[in-house]
Design brief:
With 799 residues, this protein is α+β, with helices and mostly antiparallel strands. Helix content is 20%, strand content 30%. The protein contains 15 helices and 41 strands. It has a 16-stranded mixed β-sheet that branches. It has a seven-stranded mixed β-sheet with strand order 1-8-9-6-11-12-4, with no helix packed on it. A hairpin with a 2-residue loop joins β32 and β33. It is elongated, with a radius of gyration of 31 Å.
Length: 799
């Protein structure tokens, strides 16, 4: 990308994109006698513009296309003049760029008709008799909609909503969005702008796409800004106000049914034949997110769409199949019926999914006008992904606003809009509807200790808190500067606590698992947990959202030392990913579906006990037992070294063939959790591995066709051990702990020595960030961890 510098400020750009300068309304005469351009060059450019219109679904009339083609064959100046007269009927405006670089707009001859909630395409004629080679910024609409990052560009962009007491009047003005087709990114004024490079041809045409949010007679301002190719120069700021007549679209009712025929909330991605997404992402307000292509809608809700043909993709989390259908909307068809399809329902075996790490503000979220979003929005996303539990964590960037939603209880908010006045201002037809499945999804507001003084030592996830403010604190800066005091405080009130995105700071060069490289400890993952687990206050490590090897290695080593903590699934939405909530999941075993506060209590307690498996939701361990003992129950006690039987019912689903353009995965390239990365070559098979103390004891191949299949292993257990199953990198069971002669697990001296070395590394990296007043207590805690690992090492019989 080229970079342009000038004395223009960001404020200048904002004023320009906001259309603060309104000029004349003109109907110009056509340029005549365009003799400075050869007919061949001119018609080559016209051909490209007409091909773009056709590609985008708005071709010129067949008769006009034929006539322009015939004129092109004449190859003279008269043919150019005749072509100009035809193209004027499709041109919204002409921009004349003068020899000195200044610019001037005049209105074109196209019928200025738009359609509510739909796209309309026009030509922009650019007159450049001096053959300048500058870059143009062209935008039509209220700049407040898109901000400077969206001027004339394509794709989603955050709504620009400056602070004010009432946002509705500002949103009402945001009725129009523009995209110039085939722009070039350019860095200017400290931001990326989508520009139209002038080719130097005296006359050329560009395509502009306009989306109208509203119906009725409206006006907007088309603007142009000429950026000189020479540094520190700019010219040609020009505006023209244009009137439009916007035709009304249709209200479309959505029928959204689950596999059992009950209404529910689902994820819908709606595109027209030109791949345009509805509603446009950059014009969305909560509960719809600008950084996601999908929206979440319930059975009986509505949206507005213009007449046309659409492709509707529907899903509800990884346990469902993705369905796609073509839908035509016209006067006789104003309804979309979506029937969801599952490939697996873990609840049939007593497993209920949850995401313990999602946010209502910060990262991809906009932070205005409400410092994020409220429970009414968060519950829609959790329901639309088919989850039972969603833990919404307040953290640094949103702490003082979001903490108001903490109640110390699980909630299942009624279907509602958090800001109906903003939706009304945005011309949304969304009237929330309750569904029979609504109460099956719960939210619990809790805390991620991120953006706090101790965050350097690893981000803490604190679940099931009774009080969310650390004793004696009024602001974030008052909290402890290391984690152990916070974990002890959480444990004192019965909370369940662990480390977020545990692979952060734990990545090493080795691709072995387990491996003995000492991580840099320069991140916000497992880190201090290696110390704190020796104090008995770490319940889990959260993974499935960073590198699998980095997540699992420390877990394996601590399990080998005899410590018990769960590995659970999280998403950290929308920070590590904005795709959707529930990308990483924990499946917890319960006697009945969790509803109300007691259901959440049962779910999180069983998570703490290890009655779970975690993963991406594309593979499942539905019935894992060792000698009939499931994970999370009492230890399996043996009197002597014995052979044990490992049984499981396992299901996984891959498409028959590799996705287009994707190569067969290799183990050494595992960088993210996804079943596709477990595919063996180009087959539809994955490997199910039996682990004993972190090492693969046996493996078998499983056809990932979605059907649950029984597997069975037999393995000798010669000393106290932990046994688990995995499909790497897609899912992992919690271990079954097998004790021989009631001896504690001391599986590996090297694991204990690895943990001991990590304690020293953590102190080296993290202690400089601790308060001087807290460092003596921290030093004593670290010494305790060193002594603990030294003792464990001495108790290990095997290196």
């Amino acid at each position: 990308m080229k970079s342009v510098h000038s004395s223009v400020t960001r404020r200048d750009i904002l004023i320009w994109t906001g259309g603060a300068i309104v000029t004349m309304r003109l109907r110009p005469a056509l340029a005549s006698g365009v003799t400075e351009i050869s007919a061949q060059t001119y018609f080559a450019g016209v051909k490209r513009a007409l091909e773009a219109l056709e590609k985008l679904g708005a071709p010129v009339a067949a008769a006009d296309a034929l006539q322009i083609s015939a004129l092109g064959a004449q190859n003279d100046s008269a043919s150019i003049d005749a072509s100009e007269k035809i193209l004027d009927h499709y041109s919204l405006a002409t921009l004349a760029v003068k020899a000195d670089g200044s610019a001037h707009w005049t209105v074109g001859g196209a019928e200025r008709t738009l359609i509510e909630q739909g796209w309309r395409l026009f030509l922009i004629r650019i007159s450049n008799p001096a053959s300048r080679s500058d870059n143009l910024l062209i935008s039509l609409g209220t700049g407040d909609v898109h901000g400077p990052g969206h001027m004339g560009g394509a794709g989603a962009s955050r709504a620009y909503l400056p602070d004010s007491l009432s946002q509705a009047p500002r949103i009402e003005k945001m009725w129009l969005m523009s995209q110039v087709y085939e722009t070039t990114p350019l860095i200017a004024f400290g931001q990326e702008l989508q520009t139209v490079p002038l080719t130097g041809i005296p006359v050329e045409y560009r395509v502009i796409q306009l989306f109208s949010r509203n119906a009725g007679r409206r006006s907007s301002t088309i603007s142009a800004f000429v950026l000189s190719t020479k540094p520190d120069r700019f010219r040609g700021l020009s505006h023209l106000e244009i009137d439009f007549e916007c035709l009304a679209s249709r209200t479309v009712t959505l029928g959204v049914l689950d596999v059992d025929g009950r209404g529910c909330v689902a994820s819908l991605t709606i595109k027209d034949k030109q791949e345009q997404i509805y509603p446009p992402q950059s014009m969305r307000l909560a509960p719809d997110m600008f950084f996601q292509p999908q929206i979440y809608r319930a059975d009986g809700e509505t949206m507005r769409l213009p007449d046309g043909e659409y492709v509707v993709e529907a899903k509800r989390g990884p346990e469902y199949l993705v369905t796609s259908q073509n839908v035509i909307i016209d006067s006789s068809r104003t309804r979309m019926d979506i029937k969801l399809e599952r490939w697996i329902d873990p609840a049939m075996w007593g497993w209920y999914s949850g995401d313990t790490h999602i946010h209502a503000a910060g990262c991809a979220h906009y932070e205005r006008p409400t410092e994020g979003v409220a429970p009414e929005t968060m519950i829609r996303h959790a329901r639309g992904e088919g989850m039972s539990i969603g833990d919404v964590l307040s953290w640094g960037p949103s702490w003082y606003y979001q903490k108001q939603f903490f109640t110390g209880h699980a909630i299942s908010p009624a279907a509602a809009l958090e800001h109906p006045e903003l939706q009304a201002a945005n011309n949304a037809s969304l009237d929330p509807r309750q569904t029979p499945e609504d109460r099956e999804t719960l939210l619990r507001y809790d805390v991620e200790v991120s953006g706090f003084p101790s965050s350097h030592a690893g981000h803490l996830v604190l679940l099931r808190l009774k009080e969310q403010d650390y004793p004696g604190t009024k602001i974030i800066e008052d909290w402890p500067s290391w984690n152990l005091p916070i974990l002890k405080w959480a444990r004192s009130q019965g909370a369940v606590a662990g480390m977020a995105h545990c692979g952060s700071g734990m990545v090493v060069e080795s691709r072995e698992l387990p491996n003995y490289d000492i991580p840099p400890m320069d991140g916000i993952g497992t880190q201090e947990a290696i110390v704190d687990v020796t104090h008995g206050v770490v319940d889990f490590l959260s993974g499935c959202d960073t590198q699998p090897l980095a997540e699992l290695n420390a877990w394996y080593h601590m399990l080998n030392c005899g410590f018990r903590m769960a590995m659970i699934g999280e998403t950290d939405w929308p920070c590590l990913t904005g795709e959707r909530v529930g990308v990483g999941r924990s499946y917890v075993r319960l006697e009945e579906r969790p509803v109300d506060d007691s259901g959440y209590e049962a779910w999180v307690r069983n998570l703490q006990k290890g009655k779970l498996y975690c993963g991406d939701g594309r593979s499942h361990f539905l019935d894992f037992k060792v000698n009939g003992r499931p994970s999370g129950d009492d230890d399996l006690m043996l009197h002597r070294a014995s052979q044990v039987t490992v049984e499981a019912l396992v299901a996984a689903r891959l498409e028959h063939e590799l996705p287009a353009g994707q190569q067969a995965s290799k183990e050494e390239n595992w960088n993210s959790w996804h079943l596709e990365n477990a595919r063996i070559g180009s087959t539809r098979e994955v490997s199910v591995e039996l682990l004993v103390n972190g090492s693969v004891a046996e493996r078998t191949r499983l056809v990932a066709d979605g059907k649950p299949k029984p597997i069975r292993f037999k393995t000798l257990v010669s000393r106290s051990s932990w046994i688990a199953l995995r499909i790497l990198p897609s899912s992992h069971t919690h271990p079954v702990f097998v004790l021989i002669e009631a001896k504690p697990i001391r599986a590996s001296k090297r694991s204990a020595q690895w943990c001991r070395s990590c304690v020293d590394k953590i102190w080296e990296v993290k202690s400089p960030f601790m308060r001087e007043s807290e460092r003596p207590a921290a030093a004593a805690a670290f010494d305790h961890a060193r002594a603990t690992y030294d003792k464990i090492s001495s108790e290990c019989e095997i290196a």
